[in-house]
UniProtKB/TrEMBL annotation:
PROSITE patterns according to UniProt: HTH_ICLR, ICLR_ED
Phylogenetic classification of the source organism: Bacteria, Bacillati, Actinomycetota, Actinomycetes, Micrococcales
Protein name: IclR family transcriptional regulator
Native source organism of the sequence: Ornithinimicrobium humiphilum
Residue span(s) of domain IclR-ED: 68-255
Gene Ontology terms describing biological process: negative regulation of DNA-templated transcription
InterPro entries membership: GAF-like_dom_sf, HTH_MetabolicPath_Reg, Tscrpt_reg_IclR_C, Tscrpt_reg_IclR_N, WH-like_DNA-bd_sf, WH_DNA-bd_sf
SUPFAM superfamilies according to UniProt: GAF domain-like (SSF55781), Winged helix' DNA-binding domain (SSF46785)
Gene3D superfamilies named among the record's database cross-references: 3.30.450.40, Winged helix-like DNA-binding domain superfamily/Winged helix DNA-binding domain
Keywords: DNA-binding, Transcription, Transcription regulation
UniProt xrefs under PANTHER family: HELIX-TURN-HELIX TRANSCRIPTIONAL REGULATOR, ICLR FAMILY, HTH-TYPE TRANSCRIPTIONAL REPRESSOR ALLR
GO molecular-function terms, A-Z: DNA binding; DNA-binding transcription factor activity
Top-rank taxon, per record: Bacteria
Pfam families documented for this protein: HTH_IclR, IclR_C
HTH iclR-type domain residues: 8-68
Amino acid sequence: MPGGPTLIGSVVRALSLLEAVAEHGRPVQAKALARLTDIPLPTTYHLLRTLVHEGYLVRTAEGYVVGDLPAHLASAGEEGSGALRARRVLRTLHEDLRAATYLAVLSDGEIELADIVDSPAAPRTDLWVGLHDAAHATALGKAIIGALPDDSRRDYLARHPMVDLTPRTHTDVRALLAELEDDPGVVVDSQEYALGTGCVAVPFQGPGVLGAVAVSVPAERLPKVLGEVHRLTRAASRVALAWAGPARAEDLAEA
């Protein structure tokens, strides 16, 4: 239309696909999306791959669903851009190690999962038990527990029974405390949460926040990840800076 705005067609089509997935309310296949949006199927596939790669959509066996990023964007105005900067760090770590990446934080005395970045080539672990009940069996949870002051650590463990999730799960408090004291800077879950899966985590602390960054891989890849644990340590430092707020953005870029 003369005098009207200049629109980028590919962006409009991508947004149409995102809206169609959100409105569908359940996983939807690419062919159905092409019909719903009247976008040619080859173009639909290209746009869907981009939306998945950027975190707007997730591809499952049943079809496409909305990813984590839109929720982060919606909350950015309320919580600032720290979560978005932290997500970029997780994505870089995901690409560097070809592993699903996780972020957890301590909130009101409970360990909560804050973000996940994964892909079809490096999918997330099936989180069949939440961190509230399984922190002792996950690298994320153990890293945060290990970073707590001694009294807080013992209080947390007293309030959260160490249930047995796999034959490798530690259920003895003294054994767990000894493990955490051995190397609190790098924490490993070797098939303690899920058989066949290994996880490595590094804790971080910043102004008003205690958390951990972790990656999960098939158990046989665990030694390789441990050989590159410096990448995880660097990511944890960058997330701590991201959480510090906009005033530290320049530091984050240089870290």
